[in-house]
Write a structure and sequence with these properties.
about 230 residues; alpha/beta; Rossmann fold; 7-stranded parallel beta sheet; 6 helices
């Protein structure tokens, strides 16, 4: 039976590239996002028919997350992989961030993956499935006043304590921690730095697919990847 994968923040960037890669591999894929127009555009470009579900909702809203998981289960009756990809960063540092923006970033980047894990664990225990959390190089190193980095350290910690919770149940947990990737993520920060080396969303998607495709009994826990030349 075709595996079922749910991806948050799946209409653009890494999430969309991963959805395309998994659809090509034969998965049935559900993607969530806050922008219905972007989801519709992605669905039209993917051309996957009934093997793709697009679900509008906020990854940091408990009701939206629960509704997305219910829709996947009602449609396909199983869930094999979840990819916590939704997230964003802010320009500047915690001295210049607006408090409401700080709250939104913490909720999206930390509470969002936690809600996804909470809602999907019963189904992943049944399928002996996998959880992939998209972290960041910012989650393994600090820079001055970087609240985004704080959220990614927290996401990495969530992955490890989730692994400790569910490893005995045969559920795999992986953090993918990329460096600079040329995606719409950078739009909020003025664009991808021209002088900086960058990876493509497809390259990160290939790494996510590698983790998802591990055989039963093998659990790849953490992959950090940078474009060659990114020193930090």
């Amino acid at each position: 039976m075709e595996p079922v994968t749910l991806i948050t923040g799946g209409s653009t960037g890494i999430g969309a590239a991963t959805a395309r890669a998994l659809l090509k591999q034969g998965h049935r894929v559900a993607v969530t996002g806050r922008n219905a127009g972007k989801l519709a555009a992605f669905a039209a470009s993917a051309g996957a028919g009934e093997r793709l579900l697009t679900i509008t909702g906020d990854a940091a809203n408990a009701n939206d997350v629960a509704a997305a998981v219910r829709r996947v289960m009602d449609t396909w009756g199983r869930l094999d992989n979840v990819i916590a990809n939704a997230g964003f960063s802010l320009p500047g540092n915690l001295e210049s961030h607006a408090p409401d923006d700080m709250r939104e970033m913490v909720l999206t980047n930390v509470l969002g993956p936690a809600l996804l894990v909470r809602e999907t664990l019963p189904h992943l225990r049944d399928s002996k499935g996998r959880i992939v959390i998209i972290g960041s190089v910012a989650g393994v190193r600090n820079t001055p006043g970087n609240l985004y980095s704080v959220t990614k350290w927290a996401a990495h910690a969530l992955a490890e304590n989730t692994r400790l919770l569910v490893g005995k149940d045969g559920v795999g947990v992986t953090v993918i921690a990329p460096g600079v990737v040329d995606t719409p993520f950078w739009d909020e920060r003025g664009g991808t730095p021209d002088a900086a080396p960058a990876m493509t969303p497809d390259q990160i998607a290939d790494t996510i697919v590698f983790a998802v495709n591990q055989p039963a009994g093998v659990d790849v826990n953490h992959i950090t990847l940078r474009p060659t030349g990114q020193l930090g």
